[in-house]
Amino acid sequence: MSKKDGRLVIWPAYIDAGRSRGEGRQVSRRDALEKPTIDEMMAAAMEMGLQAEAERDKRYPKEWWEKSGRVLLQKKGPKTALVKEIARRAKKRRG
């Protein structure tokens, strides 16, 4: 994937409450989820009206031994804002 196609890569680690910032978490612990799934992230992105694509066989570079998958999103604003909104919506869906 290249930056030219206008998509952003969002890894589950970005919104995982069990990780530290150094391990990849990009949102506050208050907004983060315990062990987020690709399906939850996809549902949140669809709810936001974004075009999303799941790549389940990809490995987060900091944990190359584990297939965590990733979500590709169309770029609609700053990445940090999109990640935070996905985390909030996914957490809200869990209840």
TrEMBL record:
The primary location reported for this protein is cytoplasm
**Is the Cytoplasm keyword given for this protein?**
yes
Q: Which domain of life is it from?
A: Archaea
Task: Extract the Gene3D superfamilies matched here.
Answer: Signal recognition particle, SRP19-like subunit
Which keywords are on file for this protein? Cytoplasm, Ribonucleoprotein, RNA-binding, Signal recognition particle
Where does the UniProt annotation locate this protein?
Cytoplasm
Q: Which family does it belong to?
A: Belongs to the SRP19 family.
* Purpose of the protein: Involved in targeting and insertion of nascent membrane proteins into the cytoplasmic membrane. Binds directly to 7S RNA and mediates binding of the 54 kDa subunit of the SRP.
Q: How does it assemble?
A: Part of the signal recognition particle protein translocation system, which is composed of SRP and FtsY. Archaeal SRP consists of a 7S RNA molecule of 300 nucleotides and two protein subunits: SRP54 and SRP19.
Which protein, by its recorded name, is this?
Signal recognition particle 19 kDa protein
Source organism per entry reads: Candidatus Methanocrinis natronophilus
Q: What is the lineage of its organism?
A: Archaea, Methanobacteriati, Methanobacteriota, Stenosarchaea group, Methanomicrobia
Q: Which gene encodes it?
A: srp19
